[in-house]
Amino acid sequence: MTNGAVNAFDTSAATYDSARRRLVPVFDDFYGTAVAALSLASEPPGRVLDLGAGTGLLAAHVRAALPSVQLTLLDGAGAMLEQARRRLGDEGVAYVTGDLRDALPRGSWDAIVSALAIHHLDDQAKRAVFARIHGALRPGGVFVNAEQVSGPTPAFTAVYESWQERSARALGSDDAEWDGAVARMRHDRCATVEDQLEWLRAAGFDEVDCLFKHHRFAVLVARRPG
């Protein structure tokens, strides 16, 4: 994530969660599918790494489904991690300030998850982090990426953007909230579902799929062989 993106998310940390259900109009299906995908691991995940964890929204859903899970949250925006700490506390949770372009926290992870974070990287950096994720997962572990994606053509991307604004405003987003979201989205470097599935295969994952997609919101899953 660039310094500009980090600053944008630090600035919005205190109000970030209150807008999620409006700005992600398919919130329940999106996060619900991501958590359910953890069942694809060969064993119930005990140690889970959350990349670009933000305020801990996805991590909280994971812990609700797997109460004994050990979580490590990584994010480049310290203010976002402070919000996550308020939500999750310190028991069974570690917080790491770091960049997605750097080495991952040490360990053999049962699952690695991410929500609305990796799309801030350019395509080369996405491919590099996919390779690092593959290397950090134990055999049979899963990577779940609840992501914002681009359309297969600019025309479809425009449809996605228009749908999101209409849907968010129908759910109550006002001009200030939507303008703030647009400002953060200027840092996005979204890729298509098809490209990302191919990059996951190239990283060494032999089982990959898109389990959910509604316009620009998609849940991509990859399982490490073994």
The residue-averaged pLDDT reads 93
Considering DSSP H and I runs of 4 or more, what fraction of the residues is helical? 40-55%
| First-to-last CA distance | 32 Å
Strand runs, count: 7
- Strand-pairing-aware structural class: alpha/beta
Multimeric organization: single chain
The ordered string of helix (H) and strand (E) elements is: HHHEHEHEEHEHHHEE
Main sheet makeup: 7 strands, mixed
Runs in which pLDDT lies below 50 for 5 or more consecutive residues are 1-8
* Total of helices: 9
| Percent of residues in β-strands | 15-25%
**Rg:** 16 Å
Strand order of the largest sheet: 3-2-1-4-5-7-6
Overview of this structure, please?
There is one protein chain. With 226 residues, the chain is α/β, with parallel strands linked by helices. It is 42% helix and 22% strand. It has helices spanning 3-12, 20-23, 27-36, 57-65, 78-88, 123-136, 154-170, 175-185, 193-202; strands at residues 47-51, 70-75, 93-97, 109-115, 137-148, 207-214, 217-223. Strands 3-2-1-4-5-7-6 form a seven-stranded mixed sheet, with helices on both faces. Helix 6 crosses helix 9. It is globular and about 45 Å long. The chain starts with a helix and ends with a strand.
